[in-house]
Specification:
The chain is 3% helix and 37% strand. The chain has 518 residues and is mostly beta strands. Strands 17, 19, 20, 21, 22, 24, 29, 30, 31 and 33 form a 10-stranded mixed β-sheet that branches. Strands 18-23-32-25-26-27-28 form a 7-stranded antiparallel β-sheet, with no helix packed on it. Strands 5, 8, 9, 11, 14 and 16 form a 6-stranded mixed β-sheet that branches.
Amino acid sequence: MPKAKPPLTRPNKTPNRRSLTRIAIGGAVVAALSISTMGAAAMTTDVTASAADSQATVLPFASSGWSYYRGAADPGSSWTGGSTSWATGTAPFGFGLNAGQLGTQLQQGSPAPLASYFSHGFSLAAVPASGLTLQTWADDGVAVYVNGVEAVRRNLPTGAIGPGTYATAAPQSSTARADLVTVQVPASSLRVGANVVAAEVHSNWRATHNSSFDAALTYTVPSEADTPAVPGTGTGTESGEVAGWGAPTWRDEFTYKNSSGNPAIDPTKWNVRDRSDLGLLQDAAEPESSQVSVDSAGIAHLKADWLDQPFSRPAGQAGVPTITHKTGYMDQRKLQSDDMSYSQQYGRWEIRAKTPTGPKTFGSLAAFWLRNSQSGEIDIMEAWGYNEQAAPGGQRIDTATTTVHTQTSGSGNQKYYWTHADFGAATPVWDDFHTYAFEFTPTYAAIIVDGKQLTRVTPATHPNLWNPSFFGSPLHVRLNLHVGPSATYWGLPDPNNKSWTQPLDYQVDYVRIWKYQG
């Protein structure tokens, strides 16, 4: 585990440029105006609240991303800690004609098991002083655990329970739904970072015709006068502490000031690119250093604008024939004697950013990605813009993606591709700041959005990511705002319809990196 460093002071750092008192829960900003809450391993939703609201949701009813198991074999003694090998689905879970509306239909089985098992991760950037409020219902009996500690049970006998335990009552699903079990989970049972809620649901008889279950977690929002002012970030603290990783090894909060005392990109950390040293990429924009800046609130901006005078690409050069835009691009290359300001083969990388990918952003692609000296590329976050609908090629909009490429030139690329919305990430992504993180170790890789683990893979499931021919050398960070180049895949700006592509502004609150040390 990396050793923690002292917190970095970030003067006047106001990522959302609002004067709001807030607390951070699971990488979300909780304020009198709005609440955006995130779970660690499954879906959660954005919740809006008025100044009078006193509850915020960590895990709502009907969440997706629950892991579940229903089978003849014992799930094992550690199942309350969550399992990555179980199937995933959306609550409510159940079966039967009278189970009510269900998100995931379970198989009754023959012979039918007496118990079904469920788990869901959630992340807390700060533990609420009052703890969390757990609400659940089940047909027939249920026991719920938080971080392996039993929080409540209903319609189950006292003492040890197992796969062969019968529920002590048999309420109808409609009765169970109307009679919620509510219990307070104390702060002492919670922790900063990853947490797990798990439940086992038991039937009163093996041939039961119905079974159902759902659960939710909320917490009390302190009044604005009593709430500590902590900016909402992916890690939730100014120190950037992450459970299992400690404090960042490398970071940029964009608080650097140049010799004139003005906010600027730190030249010891980033190389702000220009056509003179990067050349022309294959898209419809030329890199220009003036398109990258930092504002007084400590937000970095990578902008793309229409050129006053478009120009033609040099003959014989691959790419879009006409260059219509100028854009921002920066990376960690060519800054030290060994080239990189920072690079590592394994670790954790995180950005907090707002992407220009909503309506009237046709042709834009905001990217946060990693490259090495081989052919491997990990696109931690890519988000595409649109006009009123997606480009003809059908690229997904209002969400972001993570893609792993074994190579990006020539033939033979073998890629893995995950669309965040398919794994429960909030949409749309362009309406506010979001955090995007990627953990890469010798034994697993994980995609984490807004403090919520979307997916976790291993060398057994995705071997190319650990193939030393592609990913056997250190990775460095690149940030850029593409414009084009694919007319069908994500759209090519049209000079005859400039209103389709308004000025683009990719805003970055911070970039943080943690080193893997086993």
